[in-house]
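User: Here's a structure from my thesis project, written as structure tokens. My advisor, Dr. K., wants to see whether a designed sequence matches the one we expressed. Can you design one independently, without my sequence as a hint?
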């Protein structure tokens, strides 16, 4: 067996020109696995997370409070263990024996103290595994490796690898040579000379034979389509080197009829990899409402799609666990085929035991959750096919987390906090976030993700795709004194300066691998320039950059990628003639429907007559919307209490204090989340004062009964109408008062009353008259923030704020209702003629667009942008 060995050949992508049976091309992990297999040293892979957890245990045992890592361990134990384990791995690769001298710095002595405890208790890392391989080879064990062809200079390999390679037949790295003719050959020669000499000694002029090109587009998407067109038009032996953005390139190649190369893109946002993290987030109290919503609507949920969406809708309606909406959703779930099982899962994941983030969650419980998610993902992959779900990385993540949790349990660690769990998840997915769907398709181009693997095979054409900021070697995290002390222990640490110098040779490989043509595709303007491009500009001062955007206008490429003619979107006119009568689809009108019909009939037609609905995105209310909803619920609950109208301020306060926390848990959980304590305190203070003030107003007015959230059916202009009243107060002498509850903006609602724009209250008052034979004695608003009661009539509520109407505006409910009926008749007459008016500022001011004897037009549609966009209501 003849092995080709390079430090990064494990990252090589296909396809290859020939079979490599008994001639593998491998990187560090591939070659180490091969050696262990032949020497009988192979064993089950231990997840990195489990090794971090195990090393953390030894760090804790060795910690006497005076170790160099003691403070870091206290602040972030898992993260500290991960970093120090990385140090340990690098030291073993450099030849460390786990020891320290009496003269060694404290840092090294502390690491040696930890190693004395860890000896035999840690699964071996790469350096220790290589030591075992070297021992077996020195003992005379034979392996079927006839020779090893190195790709890089031997000095660049870690010390432990050099020890193993010294026991095998090794061929030095082949020298880099010029492989092409013409412009490309001259470029290869001068670049090679410049890198070997370490300076620019000569320059050259390009003859323009097309063997070397530099191209650039204004956007990545244009360049991707250009490359796809070139590949379809010119079939040749071509290699694409793409270090970043390969997933987007693959997507374009596939979409334009080509074959994907299989470039992967790391991402922790792939659905399967989110599942475990969201499941573990449900351990904590107070409830994290946004994460709970994500858990419920996630495509891979232990509750299933239907149940998850039902509960998510309940959570969006009343954000908390245990509200009446929540219980109603559970009742619906119970009626389904597997309702009992699903409700058991709901109880386990969302209604069971929870722990504060400060105390942490029991490791055993976390392990149970991880096992259940692992089983779920396994079933999901089997049922849907792993190719479709991409669950394999997530299953590996779960197994790694389980192994880490088992290790914590073995060490006697009882609880883990959120930060420790996050770190454990991060250490469990070091490479598992690569897109599982990134596979090479039949007929794909040769491809590579790093310049280091180019040059193993020569190809006719190399396309280096958008080289930008290069990944440079990391400097040592230790001081010069530490490095010197490690050298005294015999360690041969990697040399960052030598690694940096070797990068320039790696960057030569793509250029030297091309025998016919080399194409450098630069990133869009504004990105950092890659050093290889900077070098080429010095060596060939006359090099020009061809614009891909301009090239697309050439006839040859225009046929491959024809230009798209811009067509302006048409906007509707003020009046849309449909040519036939229009009628509403609604059996009952409501205020919001009438508001659209009155103020923008075109919007009402889209929403009502055409029944167009926007997509549903489940979101949790926040800000004043949430506070207002909770304020409504407080008032509703208050008047459900027997005798509440007669309570004193002390009684109301005591009731509020007992009621508010359960209410927030069930319906206002966002206020209980970390960082929301100020909003929570303010909400309680405002509501407590508002309840007492409202009761005082009602008691002074002699209120007999208060009905909240009352729905009344009535009519408007002879058509069925439904009114949803916040508060209807029964007063002596068969009078009533109609109040709307608002959280804030008292100044705004004073202006509404002053200008006679309280159409909603007037319409509702008309329904009240149908039921109780008289209009309310007064209508108005109760504002929680400031505990203000704003009404239209004096003498009903003592000490209230009466807002009188300005002259020239409708000053009574009767007047507003009369104008509303006139407005309805006007709009219905338009609809009967098949005429729909679109009210928009481009047609004039609102005050100029109305009809005499009708309600003044008001702006609507601020939350209906999707509907109005269909009419052409975009900003010019």
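Assistant: Designed independently from the structure alone:
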């Amino acid at each position: 067996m003849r092995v080709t060995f390079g430090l990064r050949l494990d990252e090589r992508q296909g396809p290859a020109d020939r079979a490599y049976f008994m001639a593998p091309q491998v990187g560090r992990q591939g070659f180490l696995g091969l050696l262990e297999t032949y020497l009988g040293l192979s064993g089950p892979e231990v997840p990195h997370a489990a090794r971090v957890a195990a090393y953390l245990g030894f760090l804790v045992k060795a910690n006497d409070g005076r170790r160099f890592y003691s403070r870091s361990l206290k602040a972030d134990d898992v993260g500290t263990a991960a970093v120090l384990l990385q140090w340990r791995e690098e030291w073993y690769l450099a030849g460390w024996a786990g020891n320290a001298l009496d003269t060694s710095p404290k840092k090294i002595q502390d690491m040696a103290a930890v190693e004395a405890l860890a000896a035999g208790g840690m699964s071996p890392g790469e350096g220790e595994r290589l030591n075992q391989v070297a021992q077996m080879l020195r003992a005379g064990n034979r392996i079927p490796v006839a020779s090893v062809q190195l790709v890089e200079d031997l000095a660049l390999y870690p010390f432990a690898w050099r020890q193993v390679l010294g026991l095998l037949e090794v061929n030095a790295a082949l020298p880099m040579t010029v492989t092409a003719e013409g412009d490309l050959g001259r470029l290869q020669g001068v670049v090679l000379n410049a890198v070997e000499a370490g300076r620019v000694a000569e320059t050259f002029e390009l003859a323009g034979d097309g063997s070397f090109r530099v191209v650039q587009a204004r956007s990545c998407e244009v360049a991707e389509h250009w490359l796809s067109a070139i590949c379809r038009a010119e079939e040749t032996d071509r290699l694409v080197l793409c270090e970043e953005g390969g997933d987007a390139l693959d997507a374009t190649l596939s979409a334009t009829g080509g074959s994907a190369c299989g470039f992967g893109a790391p991402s922790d946002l792939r659905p399967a990899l989110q599942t475990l993290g969201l499941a573990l987030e449900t351990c904590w109290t107070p409830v994290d409402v946004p994460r709970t919503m994500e858990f419920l609507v996630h495509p891979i949920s232990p509750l299933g799609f239907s149940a998850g969406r039902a509960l998510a809708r309940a959570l969006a309606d009343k954000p908390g666990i245990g509200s009446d909406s929540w219980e109603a959703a559970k009742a619906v779930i119970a009626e389904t085929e597997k309702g009992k099982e699903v409700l058991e899962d709901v109880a386990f994941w969302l209604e069971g035991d929870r722990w504060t983030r400060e105390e942490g969650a029991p490791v055993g419980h976390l392990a149970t959750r991880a096992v259940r998610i692992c089983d779920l993902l396994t079933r999901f992959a089997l049922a849907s096919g792993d190719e479709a779900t991409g669950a394999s990385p997530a299953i590996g993540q779960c197994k790694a987390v389980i192994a880490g949790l088992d290790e914590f349990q073995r060490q006697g660690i009882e609880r883990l906090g959120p930060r420790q769990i996050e770190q454990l998840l991060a250490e469990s997915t070091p490479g598992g976030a690569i897109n599982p769907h990134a596979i090479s398709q039949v007929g794909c181009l040769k491809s590579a993700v790093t310049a280091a693997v180019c040059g193993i095979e020569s190809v006719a054409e190399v396309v280096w795709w958008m080289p930008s900021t290069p990944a440079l070697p990391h400097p040592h995290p230790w001081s010069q004194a530490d490095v010197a002390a490690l050298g005294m222990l015999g360690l041969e640490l990697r040399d960052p300066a030598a690694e940096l110098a070797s990068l320039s040779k790696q960057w030569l490989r793509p250029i030297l691998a091309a025998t016919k043509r080399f194409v450098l595709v630069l990133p869009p303007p504004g990105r950092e320039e890659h050093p290889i491009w900077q070098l080429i500009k010095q060596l060939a001062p006359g090099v020009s950059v061809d614009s891909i955007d301009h090239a697309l206008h050439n006839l040859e490429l225009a046929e491959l990628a024809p230009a798209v003619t811009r067509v302006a979107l048409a906007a509707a006119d003020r009046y849309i003639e449909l040519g036939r009568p229009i009628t509403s689809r609604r059996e009952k009108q409501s205020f919001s429907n009438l508001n659209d019909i009155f103020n923008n009939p075109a919007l009402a037609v889209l929403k009502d007559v055409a029944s167009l609905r926007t997509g549903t995105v489940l979101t949790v209310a926040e800000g004043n919307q949430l506070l207002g909803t909770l304020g409504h619920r407080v008032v509703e609950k208050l008047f459900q209490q027997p005798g509440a109208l007669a309570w004193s301020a002390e009684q109301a306060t005591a009731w509020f204090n007992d009621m508010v926390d359960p209410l927030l848990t069930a319906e206002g959980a966002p206020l209980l989340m970390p960082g929301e304590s100020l909003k929570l305190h303010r909400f309680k203070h405002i509501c407590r004062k508002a309840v007492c003030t409202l009761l005082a107003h009602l008691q002074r007015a002699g209120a007999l009964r208060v009905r909240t959230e009352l729905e009344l059916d009535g009519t408007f202009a002879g058509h069925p109408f439904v009114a949803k009243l916040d508060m209807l107060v029964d007063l002596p002498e068969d009078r009533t008062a109609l109040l709307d509850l608002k959280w804030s903006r008292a100044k705004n609602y004073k202006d509404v009353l002053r200008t006679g724009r309280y159409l909603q209250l007037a319409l509702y008052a008309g329904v009240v008259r149908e039921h109780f034979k008289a209009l309310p004695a007064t209508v108005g608003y109760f504002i929680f923030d400031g505990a203000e009661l704003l009404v239209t009539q004096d003498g009903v509520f003592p000490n209230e704020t009466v807002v009188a109407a300005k002259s020239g505006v409708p000053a009574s409910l009767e007047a507003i209702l009369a104008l509303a009926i006139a407005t309805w008749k006007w709009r219905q007459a338009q609809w009967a003629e098949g005429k729909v008016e679109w009210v928009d500022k481009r047609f004039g001011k609102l005050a100029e667009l109305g009809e005499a004897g009708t309600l003044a037009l008001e702006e609507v549609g601020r939350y209906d942008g999707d509907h109005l966009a269909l009419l052409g209501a975009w900003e010019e």
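When you compare it with your expressed construct, this may help: The first helix runs from residue 28 to 39.
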